[in-house]
């Protein structure tokens, strides 16, 4: 660095940012491959040091990278990498990464809004969605998360329209915020319109559509429509059976949810069959992962309802282990209480 002129140093920074953004394109956050994960871990090491979070403040770097709001330029690709790296940190489940990502994303959003005169663009919407999710997951602050998602959704609906896929994805997060606050009557129509819109945009078996269907089933159940929740969960699970491996975490979760709705609608024998299948997928080894504990908690309740004995000590131990491993998922823990 000491041997470089200011102009050469600026050019080097721009080259590094463009190169890192190119590497990021080969590791989509939607991929579960070990290679993509390894690349994201390595990119995380360079995220702050590269200056990606603050590069839009540097006029000379921007001059070399192109317009930051124009798709196809290096500057736009760097911004996309920033959003995707924040998304990676959120999905990692590592609390220190998630906290750091929330701080970075909040500061980045302010920079971007200042440059775009308070009107976010497509990448801004994506970043706002991640900020809302992280605010809830890291700070467990659903009121603040709702405000963040509400603002982003307002801009998206005005600029992109209600049926745009990006708007619908923001709507899905907004509906989750409403459910977290117990506003089930508001959450239900939001979840209905989101699911129908995503099915029209991507088809009924796209991962986004299936996630929205799962959310709608939850909203129906919490609004008192238990039969409607079960019907939709059956439909979503049938789709996941066609498109996912049995060991996939989404398949395991879907099967457990189906067992839960069967149990709550009185279909106890079928619920027992489904939950036992789910327990078989989650394994019986010593490793107590969260999904296995959730299945066991649901089975303990079902077993008692069917007239068999489950010791209080066994149930308490299951719920204690689940609480220790699922600090950020208390809502699902609560849904398994009798």
Q: Any overview of this molecule?
A:
It is a single chain. This protein has 338 residues and is mostly helical. It has 16 helices and no strands. The longest helix has 21 residues, at 95-115. The radius of gyration is 22 Å and the shape is elongated.
Q: What is the strand tally?
A: 0
Give me the oligomer status.
Answer: single chain
Which class of secondary structure composition applies to the elements?
mainly alpha
Mean pLDDT: 86
Beta-strand content bin = under 5%
Distance between the termini: 64 Å
Determine the fraction of residues in helical runs and give it as a percent range: over 70%
Q: What is the helix tally?
A: 16
Q: What would you call the shape?
A: elongated
The major beta sheet can be summarized as: none
Radius of gyration: 22 Å
Helix-strand pattern: HHHHHHHHHHHHHHHH
Low-confidence stretches: 284-288, 325-338
Labels describing this entry:
single chain, 338 residues, mainly alpha, 0% strand, elongated, disordered C terminus
What is the topology?
Elements: H1 6-25, H2 34-47, H3 59-65, H4 74-92, H5 95-115, H6 122-139, H7 142-159, H8 165-180, H9 184-202, H10 207-222, H11 226-243, H12 249-264, H13 268-282, H14 290-305, H15 312-325, H16 330-335
Helix pairs in contact: 1-3, 1-4, 2-4, 4-5, 4-6, 5-6, 6-7, 6-8, 7-8, 8-9, 8-10, 9-10, 10-11, 11-12, 12-13, 12-14, 13-14, 14-15
């Amino acid at each position: 660095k000491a041997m470089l002129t200011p102009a050469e140093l600026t050019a080097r920074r721009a080259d590094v940012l463009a190169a890192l953004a190119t590497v990021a394109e080969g590791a989509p956050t939607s991929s579960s491959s070990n290679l993509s994960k390894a690349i994201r871990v390595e990119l995380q090491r360079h995220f702050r040091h590269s200056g990606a979070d603050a590069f839009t403040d540097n006029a000379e770097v921007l001059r070399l990278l192109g317009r930051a709001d124009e798709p196809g330029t290096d500057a736009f690709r760097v911004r996309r990498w920033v959003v995707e790296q924040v998304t990676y940190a959120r999905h990692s489940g590592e609390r220190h990464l998630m906290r750091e990502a929330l701080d970075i994303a909040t500061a980045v959003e302010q920079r971007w809004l200042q440059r775009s005169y308070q009107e976010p663009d497509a990448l801004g919407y994506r970043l706002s969605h991640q900020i809302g999710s992280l605010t809830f997951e890291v700070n467990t602050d659903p009121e603040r998360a709702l405000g963040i998602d509400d603002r982003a959704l307002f801009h998206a609906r005005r600029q992109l329209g209600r049926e745009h896929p990006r708007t619908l994805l923001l709507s899905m997060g907004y509906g989750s915020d409403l459910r977290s606050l117990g506003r089930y009557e508001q959450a239900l129509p939001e979840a209905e319109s989101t699911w129908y819109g995503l099915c029209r945009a991507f088809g009924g078996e796209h991962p986004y559509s299936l996630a929205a269907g799962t959310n709608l089933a939850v909203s129906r159940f919490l609004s008192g429509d238990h039969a409607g929740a079960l019907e939709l969960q059956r439909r979503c699970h049938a789709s996941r059976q066609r498109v996912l491996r049995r060991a996939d975490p989404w398949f395991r979760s879907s099967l457990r949810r189906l067992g839960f709705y069967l149990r709550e609608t009185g279909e106890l024998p079928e619920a027992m069959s489904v939950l036992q299948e789910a327990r078989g997928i989650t394994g019986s080894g010593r490793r107590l992962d969260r999904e296995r504990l959730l299945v066991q908690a649901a089975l303990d309740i079902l077993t008692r309802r069917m007239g068999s004995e489950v010791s209080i000590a066994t149930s308490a131990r299951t719920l204690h282990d689940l609480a220790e491993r699922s600090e950020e998922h208390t809502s699902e823990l609560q849904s398994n209480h009798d």
